[in-house]
Fold this sequence. Notes:
Blueprint: E1 5-6, E2 15-16, E3 18-20, E4 27-31, E5 34-38, E6 47-48, H1 64-72, H2 79-89, H3 96-104, E7 123-126, E8 129-131, H4 134-144, E9 153-157, H5 163-172, E10 177-182, H6 185-196, H7 201-206, E11 209-213, E12 226-231, H8 240-245, E13 246-257, E14 261-268, E15 274-283, H9 290-295
Parallel strand pairs: 3-15, 9-10, 9-12, 10-11, 12-13
Antiparallel strand pairs: 1-6, 2-5, 4-5, 7-8, 13-14, 14-15
Amino acid sequence: MPSSIPLLHSVSAIAYGFRYRAPLKHTCLFYTHQLYTLQPPNFPLFSSSFCRVPNPNFFTGNSLFSRMEHFLSGSGINRNKGMIEQLQRYGVIKSKKVTEIMETVDRGLFVPEGTPAYIDSPMSIGYNATISAPHMHAMCLELLEDRLQPGMHALDVGSGTGYLTACFALMVGPQGRAVGVEHIPELVAWSTKNVERSAAAPLLKEGSLSLHVGDGRKGWPEHAPYDAIHVGAAAADVPQDLIDQLKPGGRMVIPVGTFFQDLKVIDKNLDGSLSVRSETSVRYVPLTSREAQLKGT
């Protein structure tokens, strides 16, 4: 990336190549294979390692986001499929399997009632938590696809409303195991109801999909080791318990950092050593204790 530059007030601090799950008012805009992100109104001005700010004329009444919002908030018969087609069109979804799974698991069942489920934006689910923007779910499914084959084990840390856990369960199938861990009991209860209304309901009933109240930083040892681990909140450091529960040959996707974060892809080699790379810059809510999360600290 080029050296740091101040963000611009004129376009509400637009960043190129910076992908957000939170803060909640961020709106992600696709441009080729990167993302533009529009800053919320009260976000402080700061410098960072963003790439060059694009031409502000891109953000006009004819901007790509305006077209996406109009398309996805319309009265189409299948807006979930429309959302997926947009993600495919802009290069986020490439895999046939990820397409199939995201078409099967309707995002609309996993967001608060009355919210725009198919817009590419994170949104609040209460308790100072969010559900990721659809492009982040798609990206994580693509990154983990090879470790979400039938019969494999997957762990979703910070499972929230249950959306990604349901996707994992359908990918690993009834012979596999998909585990969601969330430390807010009310979210676990809600996510269970969400899954019961979804295509993953039979897997929940049969027991190959399970949702648990617990500290996700400690993983869920009962069904370890895991071929795939997804962490839906940013850790200052990768929790050792999660590394220990990752199977040799397995992969973890986890945002790492405090204010500035990178989405890390961690592969555990067959000899137990780790290979780590950064996929992209992100902004997630912190991976913290239940008490700290409820306080918003």
